[in-house]
Design goal:
The protein is α+β, with helices and mostly antiparallel strands. It is globular and about 85 Å long. The termini are far apart. Mean pLDDT is about 75; it is low at about 1-25, about 75-200, about 570, about 575-590, about 650-660, about 865-870 and about 895-935. Bound molecules: adenosine-5'-diphosphate. Adenosine-5'-diphosphate binds next to β9, β11, β18 and β19.
Length: about 950
């Protein structure tokens, strides 16, 4: 936690940042340009944070920003833009100062609010004053501070341009970012020049003029989908590093190591809280909510479908089934993207050997034009104590491709019952909009478009959104207690962690929302211009709202040293030890209203930070706290500590003994909304929030759709290299494990692309059989494990097979990375030559190489794993088109002679074993050839 005394004098005690110094002699305009990318204080002050905007993702806008930065004339540019917009037809200018008053929906861009406040700060002296008024360098900030309205200033939104509802049918896009084959077979899109992916050099060129670059602000990724994120970071001047410790922002797709958390400095930000899995693991979430149902009453926590964890609760499931018959939806406990999900009519159809979550299937979902849909909404938690929850104004509605039909015969059909994009995208009827403005076209809509659609039909969308807010708050309350105690144990500073959760919500036909799951790292992958728009706005708004401190290296190293001095093994958060006004507030709470007791320094800091954060919220709508949250949820909080309590036996004692008593939730609420609060305008009222959800998300400049790069393959070159490879294999060279696995996965990629374009029944059956035996975690749904059921031929089945194969390939490719060759092995094909072959190889080339290699060596290294799994001897592979595919099931047949393959894997482990293994392999080739000769 920041030492309050030090923080107060930061301006004077801290060394001037390098950026600040470098500016001392430069033009004022340059100062202003840099300041325009900083919020909540002047550059060099303790509260200053970076500002992120989507407009610099657009090459044109970026160019003009760059030019103005170089010319040191930023003001002209901003003003020009402003003028253009003011003159634009259909533009409505509001006189209100509240951003979310909803009077003129579709007009005000959340992105633009910050953009405009910046523009104004450059042109208007009044605004400059306002900016300074909440500068953190203002050490005289009072306990109840000022609400900052600068960032809430409004500007006209550009009206959507006239648009032709161009619809593009999804074509093939099967390769994953993680894969080494980055070829996209075809993508139909009317792309403008702007849409082309801009090189990272250009991103960096833009970045070097940003304050983040000059301040040396860095980010680190761990196991995450990075394309859009990386682009946003780079254009804003952040630098990617590999270092485990010296990052400013750590963005991971997985949970954080406790050691990383323990050592965080005050300026570092990480995108997860410890023990978030209480919310994001399906089984934990359901258990936590179930506990709240028992503790607080079913009527308050009836937010998830009735669920059971099997095999542990099999009897309870049977009992429930006998009471109210199925269907039931079965989900692997820790999976996502529709993987392994199937629906059954009765519990006896559920295999008993796997741990699964079984939920009551909601048979009457809300349908749009007859198609089932569900919602993905984005929830940002910036603090658990006090609890601060935001809901992003825009979300995504996912529609199933096949029209909904309750008939039990259709339960097998994932493209009717599951709305996941990752499944439906493989269906040949899946439609996606090709224009970011088309929000109600095809199988992916925006939340605001759905609300407007429902409103037109006379539905009470206000109630729907209030119920969704309620569901989110309750889900967080149900899991908060554990997260808070983990934060106290492992997170040294109150603002180190933030988290963006993806809430999946199903709405039934009575408009009741049901929580299906909470995603730990909601996908930031983009598949269409609409997706890009929503996610780019979401990420930039999130980064600005969370606040990446704009500290220079000197300040950072100051904190690093300080951190090292204070580090204790338990790493419990430092707390005030003297009797603070917090303690006073608790003991005297009955006598004096909370708001009248002076705040401690820590409370002042929390309050100031909450206000500043709110002023930077962009498109985020704060749903906790609001003026009525204490009234609604106060009962679920411990009266003394304000902590959400979800365990009856522990109650608040554990918290009271752990730290000095405080009640931040109460403090925040009474200072933000109490009688004595000095809020200028309460723009967070219910009606404003609802209006914000309904209005369309508009951006000031178009955000280019980041497409996957295409690699041109040359057929002729492919044929030439294939001949070369076949010759090498024929003369005794073998494929390494890595090469064999690469070839196999590229081959299956090609099969997948082909099957999505022109489904072929016999090939789908082969793939299903293959996955049944070799799929590992990717198993076909139970219904399809029995060959009898494979008969149902349809586009939906093709999509399901494609999805399964896609999932399998993703895991297979990830595993393959463990086999990478660091040097060429004797007797094996040289890496460089083989890579060249793979670059140009088509399905038939890959098939030819795999076939010959298997026939000559009798080995199938693409099926071996490093644990020494026993696999049968390779069957003879027939030559000719698709011969390899047809032989695939036989390769896994258990009738063959099992062979211990661990010894063939030796060359990966040590040089000594290498030579043994190679000798063994060459000997085998020789024996095989000799036996061929004799026959
Ligand atoms: P995943 O993490 O694999 O996406 P979800 O829980 O989000 O799993 O479920 C996937 C899909 O299944 C959802 O899009 C939804 O359409 C459907 N679904 C899940 N649970 C239910 C349910 N209880 N009733 C009806 N449909 C459901």
């Amino acid at each position: 936690m920041v030492d309050a005394h030090f923080a107060k004098n930061t301006e004077f005690a801290m060394p001037a940042s390098s950026l600040y110094k470098s500016h001392e002699n430069s033009a004022t305009n340059q100062h202003e340009y840099q300041d325009s990318w900083i919020a909540s204080g002047k550059l060099g002050s303790r509260d200053a944070v970076l500002v992120f905007r989507t407009n610099i993702l657009n090459p044109k806008t970026r160019k003009s920003i760059l030019e103005s930065a170089l010319a040191h004339e930023p003001t002209n540019n901003w003003t020009k833009n402003e003028e253009v917009q003011a003159k634009a037809p259909n533009t409505v200018i509001s006189s209100s100062s509240s951003p979310a008053n909803g009077k003129a929906p579709s007009i005000y861009s959340t992105q633009d609010r910050i953009y405009m406040s910046v523009a104004k700060s450059l042109t208007c002296s009044q605004a400059k004053k306002a900016n300074n008024s909440f500068s953190s360098s203002d050490v005289s900030i009072t306990s109840d501070g000022d609400d900052i309205t600068l960032y809430n200033e409004k500007k006209p939104r550009l009206q959507p341009k006239n648009r032709a509802s161009s619809i593009v049918k999804i074509q093939v896009e099967v390769n994953k970012e993680s894969g080494y084959d980055s070829v996209v077979v075809s993508q139909s899109n009317n792309t403008s020049e702007e849409d082309q992916e801009i090189s990272s050099e250009e991103d960096n060129e833009c970045g070097v003029n940003m304050p983040a670059h000059r301040l040396g602000i860095t980010y680190k990724f761990i196991q995450t989908e990075t394309k859009l994120l990386r682009k946003i970071f780079n254009v804003h001047g952040l630098t990617e590093i590999q270092d485990e410790c010296n990052f400013n922002l750590l963005w991971t797709g997985v949970h954080l190591k406790l050691d990383t958390l323990r050592n965080l400095a005050v300026y570092q930000r990480v995108n997860h809280f410890p023990r978030s899995y209480e919310l994001t693991r399906k089984d934990r979430l359901y258990k936590n909510i179930e506990r709240m149902q028992h503790l607080r009453g079913m009527k308050y926590f009836d937010i998830v479908p009735q669920s059971f964890i099997l095999p542990l609760e099999s009897r309870d499931l049977l009992f429930a089934h006998n009471k109210h018959r199925g269907p039931w939806i079965v989900k692997p406990a820790a999976s996502s993207r529709g993987r392994g999900i199937f629906i059954v009519n009765s519990p006896d159809q559920i295999p008993q050997d796997e741990q699964v979550l079984v939920s009551k299937y909601i048979v009457d979902p809300l349908c749009i034009d007859g198609h089932k849909c569900d919602l993905r909404v984005y929830v940002l938690v910036t603090s658990f104590d006090p609890l601060i929850i935001y809901l992003y104004e825009e979300g995504i509605v996912r529609l199933a491709t096949v029209r909904y039909d309750r008939n039990a015969d259709n339960l097998w059909n994932p493209c009717m019952h599951l709305c996941n994009y990752s499944i439906n995208k493989y269906h040949s009827d899946y439609i996606r909009s090709s224009d970011a403005q088309d929000e109600d076209v095809g199988h992916k809509w925006t939340l605001s478009a759905l609300l407007r659609h429902l409103k037109l039909q006379g539905c009470d969308t206000n109630l729907l959104m209030l119920n969704i807010e309620d569901l989110i708050i309750k889900a967080v309350l149900a899991c908060a207690q554990t997260v808070i105690s983990a934060c106290r144990m492992f997170v040294p500073n109150v603002s180190n962690c933030f988290e963006l959760y993806g809430f999946d919500i199903l709405i039934d036909n009575t408009l009741k929302p049901w929580l299906l799951e909470v995603n730990l790292s909601p996908s930031m992958g983009v598949d269409s211009p609409l997706d890009t728009k929503v996610k780019a706005c979401l990420i930039t708004d999130l980064l600005t709202c969370v606040g990446i401190p704009a500290y220079g290296p000197e300040i950072r190293s100051y904190y690093d040293c300080k951190n090292a001095r204070h580090r204790s093994p338990s790493c419990q958060r430092r707390v005030e030890t003297n009797e603070s006004s917090s303690t006073l507030r608790c003991s005297k709470s009955k006598k004096k209203p909370a708001a009248m007791i002076p705040l401690t320094q820590e409370e002042q800091r929390i309050l100031r930070s909450a206000r500043q954060q709110y002023s930077r919220r962009g498109g985020f709508v704060r749903i906790f706290p609001t003026d009525d949250t204490m009234q609604r949820y106060g009962n679920f909080l411990d009266p003394a500590s304000g902590i959400p309590i979800s365990t009856p036996n522990v109650q608040s004692q554990s918290f009271q003994t752990l730290v000095t008593q405080h009640n931040y939730n109460q403090m925040l609420h009474s200072n933000l909304f109490g009688a004595n609060s000095r809020s200028i305008v309460d723009d967070n009222r219910e009606e404003n929030r609802i209006n914000q959800y309904e209005r369309a998300l508009e951006t000031n400049s178009e955000i280019p759709f980041l497409k996957k790069q295409m690699v041109e393959k040359c057929e002729e070159e492919g044929r030439r290299l294939r001949k070369q490879m076949l010759k090498k294999i024929g003369s005794g060279s073998a494929l390494t494990h890595f090469q064999a696995r690469q070839t196999f996965s590229m081959y299956l990629d090609a099969v997948l692309r082909r099957l999505t374009q022109e489904p072929k029944d016999s090939h789908e059956k082969i793939i299903l059989k293959f996955l049944n035996k070799f799929g590992g975690a990717v198993k076909p749904p139970v219904l399809f494990r029995n060959n009898q059921n494979i008969k149902v031929v349809s586009k939906a089945r093709s999509a399901m097979v494609a999805k399964l194969l896609g999932d399998f390939l993703e895991l297979y490719k990830r595993d393959t990375e463990a086999y990478i060759d660091s040097f060429d092995h004797f007797g094996m094909i040289p890496t460089s030559a083989y890579s060249l072959f793979l670059m140009h190889a088509q399905e038939s080339d890959l098939e030819a190489v795999l076939t010959l290699h298997t026939n000559i060596t009798g080995l199938m290294p693409f099926l071996y794993n490093r644990c020494g799994l026993s696999v049968p001897a390779a069957p003879p592979i027939p030559s000719g088109l698709h011969g390899f595919l047809r032989a695939l099931p036989a390769m896994l047949s258990s009738s063959g002679v099992a062979r211990d393959v661990s010894k063939y894997d030796g060359y990966l482990k040590s040089t000594e074993k290498n030579s043994e293994s190679v000798t063994d392999t060459t000997a085998r080739i020789k024996v095989h050839r000799d036996s061929k000769k004799t026959s």
